Amino acid sequence: MIEKLAENLINLKKEFASEYDGSSQIQEFLPLSSSDLFPINESELKLLHNFAEKNPIYYNSFEKTLGDIPCIVYEGDINKYWLNSIQHDSSRAPFSPTWIMSGYIMTLFAKENGCSQIIDIGSGDGRIAYCGKVLGVESFSIELDDQLTDIQKSLTENIDFNPYCFDATQFDYSSLNLTKPVFFIGGLAQMGGVELATGVLKKIKSESHLMSNSSWVFAGTISKKYHPDPKNMSGWGSFIENNNLKLIQSISLPTAWSFKESDDTQYVFSKFHNSNPN
Q: Is the whole model's pTM more than 0.90, yes or no?
């Protein structure tokens, strides 16, 4: 089901991108109701729309049918948040969001693979953690920038996804009482993602039980404009191999930065691999 949802979203994104004639900085869509292409719980879908409707980065919305699916298109501007996010001395990746629907599909994959908690690292406006909580998974959002954290706090009225304004490489993860966490790392490997992931992984390695039960999701790319990794895996191969992680699956999904690209963002799911369990 996950792969089919992702494929359907990519196909509609291609149609949307070819037809879109607006001038907004970012744009995405959400289906209006459950359908054969998107068999999503109606109450969960409503909560996804609530996130977009209440989020100040979106300033306009309108109905549009894509592939016979009635949708709402949301248009937005992240300039001031992008600029603010790169001003911090310890900032490793600027704010550029994945799509809300992409966040839903990723967290659904994590849930179906047995993850008990979602930790959204460098979380921006917290959409991945929000989607996780919509699906009933305990979620935590770690974001360095105070303006972005303020957005998150304004969206927790009905869905509390535990936003923290903190440097993720210095956060005390043992305080969260995690059991089988999945860490979502914001930022491409070539755009600060490796540095962010390295800092977080170093921080939790002292918690042996936490590391041994952890899963990791990285935003990757196969675009030729980014320097490739010798081990591939959409830029994360060397990091995964060097840190004793094992590739589970890669899923292609739309993001704000890949809207005009022919290749969408590759989300790389991995898990800690204990080669010596005894």
A: yes
